[in-house]
Amino acid sequence: MRLGIHVRTGGGYALALQHAINAGCSALQVFSANPKTYRVGKIDRPALEAFCNMRRDAGIDPCAIHTSYLINLASEDDKIRAGSVRLIKNDLEVAAIGGIAYVNTHLGSYGRTSRSQGFATVCHLLEEALSDIAPGVQLVMENSAGAGQLCGGTLEELGHFLHTVDHPQLGVCLDTAHAWAAGYEINSQRGVDDFIYQAAQHIGLDRVHMFHFNDTQVALGAHRDRHWHIGEGNIGWEGFHALAARPELRGKTAILETPGEDADDIRNMQTIRKIFSGATRAQCSVTSTSTLSTRA
Q: At what angle do helices 236-244 and 262-295 cross, to 10 degrees?
C-alpha cells in the first residue's frame, strides 16, 4: 500500500515534498489553494509541472488533491452549488496539469432538502464536474461521519452515487475516522472484514481508490468528525493492523490526516509503517507454515 500524509504547500511545493520525504512517504495529498474560499485563482502551470517532476524523482506517487471544505453539491443555494462545481472542475484541471491522480471531495449536506431531491442534485452536478475530466485523473467521493443531513455517510449511499452517475473516472475514498463515527466498528479483524465486505458489495473494491487513515477518540456512531493519532484512539493498533492484513488493499493509497505539527506527521507515519510491517511479517509466517504443512 502506498502511504503518505497531507502536506502544507504554503511554503511552496519543494518544501512540502521535502517534508513528505522526511516522513518516509510513498504518496501525498495537498490542497490546490486556500480550502476555505470559493475563489479560483490562476493556475500556475510551470509550478505544477515542476512539482510533478520532483515527485517522480523522489518516487512519491500517487498524489491527491483535497478539494475545498466549502463544497456543497446538495445546497439549496444556486451560488453555492455553482461555486462548488467550479472548485471541483478547477482542481480536476490542476490535477491533470500536475500529473496528480486523485481529486478527493466531500459532497456536502442535504440541509432542508429531501434526501431524494438532494441525491438527484448531487448526481447531476457530479456529471457536470466530470463532463470534461482529463484522462488519468479520478474524482473520488469521501465518506462523511454521517452527522445530520450529510451526504455519503454510508457505504450503501456512496455506492448509489457511484452507480447512478456511472462514470469510469468517479471513485471513492474511505476515511477510517468518518467510518467509525458513522457506526462501522473497524477496531478488530472481524469488524474490518465486515466493513470491507460491505464496501465490496455496495461500491466494488476496484472503485475504492483511496483511504484516509485517521484514528479517532469519538464514540462509535457518534457522527462527529474528529481525527486523532494512529493507534492512539478507538480504532487503535488492532483496527489498522486488520486493514493492513487485507490483501485486496495492497495496491491502494492511504493518506494520513492526523492532527499536530511536522513531528507528529513523522511519528504517525512511523506508527502506520510499523503496523503494516507487522501485518506483512504475520502473513509471511502464515504462508510459510502453510507451505511446510503441505510438504509434510
A: 60
Cα–Cα distance measured from residue 81 to residue 38, given in angstroms and rounded to the nearest whole number? 11
Residues 6+ apart with CB under 8 A from 226: 177, 181, 216, 217, 218
Q: Average per-residue pLDDT in the chain?
A: 95
- Supply angle C-alpha 29, 253, 141, rounded to 5: 70
CA–CA distance, 261 with 258 (Å, rounded to integer) = 9
Give Cα 292 distance to the centre of its chain. 39
CA–CA dist 124, 26 (Å, integer): 35
Task: Give φ, ψ of 255 to 5 degrees.
Answer: -115, 130
Strands (E), the chain: 2-6, 27-30, 63-66, 102-105, 138-142, 170-175, 208-213, 253-256
**C-alpha span between 192 and 245 (Å, rounded):** 10
> Whole domain around residue 100: which residue ranges?
2-295
Compute how many other C-beta atoms are within 10 angstroms of the C-beta atom of residue 111.
14
What are the cell numbers at 60?
Answer: 512519491
Instruction: Report the number of distinct structural domains present in the chain.
Output: 1
The 10s digit of each residue's pLDDT in 75-85 is 999 999 999 99
Total Cβ atoms within 10 A of residue 207 = 19
Q: What is the CATH number of the domain that holds 105?
A: 3.20.20.150
pTM passes above 0.85: yes
Q: Quick check: helix, strand or coil at residue 77?
A: coil
Return the ∠ at Cα 116 (arms to 112 and 120), rounded to 5°.
Answer: 105
Per-residue pLDDT band for 291 (boundaries 50, 70, 90) equals very low
